[in-house]
Amino acid sequence: MFARLSGKATKRPLKQCIKAFTQSRKASGTTSASHSNKKVIAVTATVAATTAGIGYFIFADPIHANMADEGLHPTKYPWEHRSPFSTFDHASIRRGFQVYKEVCSACHSLERIAWRHLVGVSHTVDEAKAMAEEIEYDDGPDEEGNFFKRPGKLSDYLPKPYPNDEAARASNAGALPPDLSLITKARHGGADYIFSLLTGYYDPPPGVEVREGLYYNPYFPGGAISMARALFDDLIEYEDGTPATTSQMAKDVTTFLSWAAEPEFDHRKKMGLKAVVSPEVQKDCIRTTI
């Protein structure tokens, strides 16, 4: 914006200064021309800067800072996987998948995750196979050109809750539930934002009106979100007996979604640590052998 304004605002003064500079060169000798050149350049720069500054303050749009428009900034939480020497909490990933499967998957897809991705991370091969086989997938055509249903396989991706975007909007009052595969990467604040959003449903404060069909949540831009509160204490029963409080479920599903956005995270971190630590370890070994 500043460059555009300054270009328009200084066009006429620059022409006048260039004209004056040309006339001064014709009227002066070599010595005086050099002196005039410096003076005209200085005048040109001063006029350009002054005109641009005045134009900016006259024509620039006013800047407004409204926290409600951007959403309340989430607190930074001490996620275990953020530590340079820690990987994901895999027990939390397993619980988080349970929350996604029993709660979130009713509206949200996870298009980038296949059943095989869970193997060795949160579930065994047999567990992942059993879950996949509970779902019927479209396949074909067969030898006769017909499509058919079959039990899921490890190579299949997690099923979508709706056949298309139109069906998703029709079931959610016109709102399209986003795919959650990269949600922690796609939202400013990442895991902190997702956790805060899931636990941030309150009654609107006095003077704040939320139109019908929306729900007050200060962490969502604008303060009103079309997604109703999804997590309540004891909504599910964890397999490992962990108390299913709202904050615990929010923590676990956020951890799971953080992993889903970067399934290679643990491997990449381990390789990076090896690359950094190995030379130092080698030096220590050399010192001890000398």
In CATH terms, what is the architecture of the largest domain?
A: Orthogonal Bundle
User: What is the CA–CA distance across the termini?
Assistant: 65 Å
Main beta sheet strand tally, sense and closure: 2 strands, antiparallel
CATH homologous superfamily heading of the largest domain: Cytochrome c-like domain
Point out poorly predicted stretches: 1-14, 28-33, 52-65
Order of helices and strands: HHHHHHEEHHHEEHH
User: Can you tell me the CATH topology of the largest domain?
Assistant: Cytochrome Bc1 Complex, Chain D, domain 2
Q: Which shape, going by the Cα principal axes? A: globular
Mean pLDDT, to the nearest integer, reads 83
Helix content: 40-55%
Describe the structure.
- Strand 3 (215-216) and strand 4 form a beta hairpin.
- The radius of gyration is 31 Å and the shape is globular.
- The chain has helices spanning 2-9, 11-27, 30-59, 67-70, 90-102, 125-133, 165-171, 183-186, 190-198, 246-261, 265-289; strands spanning 136-139, 148-151, 215-216, 224-225.
- Mean pLDDT is 83; it is low at 1-14, 28-33 and 52-65.
- The chain is mostly helical and 290 residues long.
- It folds into 2 domains: 2-59; 68-113 and 158-268, Cytochrome c-like domain (Cytochrome Bc1 Complex, Chain D, domain 2, Orthogonal Bundle), CATH 1.10.760.10.
- Helix 2 (11-27) runs antiparallel to helix 3 (30-59) and helix 5 crosses helix 10 (246-261).
